[in-house]
User: Which sequence fits this backbone?
């Protein structure tokens, strides 16, 4: 993803791409999820993906309450039999949709933060691009993330929140692998500092998602937010922040 000066394909929701990389047996978390039966034939998979695409559209535009079985059937243009052949009901559909999104996001972030790709880079040259891409990713998927997070607060099992926390800590783990022994970092406990700074950045983005309503603005552009988060992150690691507007850019 380093060569992309824009939103990465993290958890993109592109149904064709999802189908290609989530064939039968390729979804270790979702495949064992109760209430979901994965298709094995191309025609069945096309229907399966149509159901997921419809549910995602409804979720992003109207929140979790808009995702009813009837609305999904009408939007996807499929029958009830096709739906219940794959999902026990609305809740299992939402759980699967959420789980696959995070699984794909984790896969793509692992590719972006592959240590070999950053060998020889300064700490600032890692953190700046990471936070710019992270802010763009959250912004690009704001409708989905907002709907799932607000829905999760009212669910008894908190599975969405747990999965979100897992990804946040995975991002911290990946950054620690890239930067944990970096000579630039002056903090006495680099691993702890990187984790705390990562979680702080994610908390800021999550709060902005939940409390900033669609169409509203807090007066902070994504670019400005990424830059300020980078400065805060670098400062926490004991590093001097680059001049405003002069941070490292993705090549």
Assistant:
């Amino acid at each position: 993803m380093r060569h992309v000066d824009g939103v990465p394909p993290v958890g993109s929701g592109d149904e064709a791409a999802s189908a290609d990389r989530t064939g039968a047996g390729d979804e270790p978390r979702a495949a064992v999820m109760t209430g979901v039966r994965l298709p094995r034939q191309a025609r069945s998979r096309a229907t399966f993906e149509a159901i997921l695409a419809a549910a995602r559209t409804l979720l992003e535009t109207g929140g979790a309450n808009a995702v009813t079985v009837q609305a999904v059937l009408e939007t996807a243009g499929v029958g009830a039999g096709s739906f219940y052949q794959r999902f026990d009901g609305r809740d299992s559909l939402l759980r699967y949709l959420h789980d696959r999104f995070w699984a794909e996001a984790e896969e793509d972030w692992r590719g972006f933060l592959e240590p070999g790709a950053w060998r020889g880079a300064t700490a600032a040259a890692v953190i700046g691009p990471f936070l710019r891409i992270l802010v763009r990713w959250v912004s690009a998927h704001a409708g989905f993330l907002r709907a799932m997070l607000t829905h999760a607060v009212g669910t008894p099992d908190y599975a969405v929140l747990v999965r979100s926390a897992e990804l946040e800590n995975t991002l911290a783990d990946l950054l620690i692998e890239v930067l944990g022994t970096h000579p630039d970092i002056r903090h006495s406990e680099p691993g702890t500092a990187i984790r705390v700074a990562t979680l702080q950045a994610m908390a800021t983005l999550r709060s902005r998602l939940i409390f900033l309503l669609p169409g509203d603005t807090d007066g902070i552009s994504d670019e400005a937010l990424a830059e300020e988060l980078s400065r805060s992150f670098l400062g926490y690691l004991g590093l001097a922040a680059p001049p405003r507007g002069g941070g490292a850019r993705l090549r």
Notes: The chain is about 60% helix and 0% strand. The chain has two domains: 15-92, 113-236. The radius of gyration is 19 Å.
